[in-house]
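#structure-requests
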Amino acid sequence: MIPFDYLTPRTLQEAIQLLDPDDPDIRPVGGGTAVMLMMKAGVLRPTRLVSLSKVEDAYRQIQVDSEGTLRVGGMTTLAELERSPLVLRGWPVLARAFKALSNIRVRNVATIGGNLAHGDPHMDMPPVLSALGARIVARGPSGAREIDVEQLCVGYYETVLARNEIIAEVVVPPMRQQRGAYLKVTTRAAHDWPALGVAVTLQSEEDLIRQARIVVAAATDRPIRLLTVEEALRDARFDEERIRQAALAAADELDIASDQHGSAQYKRHLLGIYLGRAVRGALAEQEGGASNEQH
């Protein structure tokens, strides 16, 4: 392994100053789970890693503000979010999703900011947070800017973040009367990378869907909202066959990618089946872990 510098600044601002917008070999590190895997695979050969483990505790807090919005520090671990009573009470779909996300050893270390900044389309958090209408606060030398999670990823391992920007906070609007579900389809264990991920939030009156947000992931190079399906469901009663046809029509417009988790044709087939199940799960909002299907 090529030697590299490993720095542990005490403030977020100091960490930002140690980054270089023109040098891809200088990286910030939250929990380091993804970075270490990339280094082991030889994909990443950094000259400098900037650890965020010692920055201010303010970036590890989980709070609900006066408007009922969830505000999560970017250095909060996934396990801390999973166990948070605030998340369990106000954002149950998010809490359930963590149970099928990686394994507990990874969740104890990985941070929410690092998870989102990684830009891997197989990650579970980007589609769930996109369906919830969440946004991030990114901090860089010029200050802070807000970015919708839906707009964060632009390609495989690509985000709109500059190389000297760090995710300082994740902001999730209140769910109020919304219901939600996240369904992932894996070929092995529940925490494995999915061949397909579908996140749904909706407002409904019994089985009448007033409006919905639907995000598909893993099948494409980034999480993508299915706007045509959302429109087809507006003010409509639940009809699994109708949803299947809408999902297949939407799949024809997507650039579905084949990978080691399944062919494009296979993933298109899965979308036609599991989108309806995800909508039905959101309507029922069943208790228990995040929905997972092994196929």
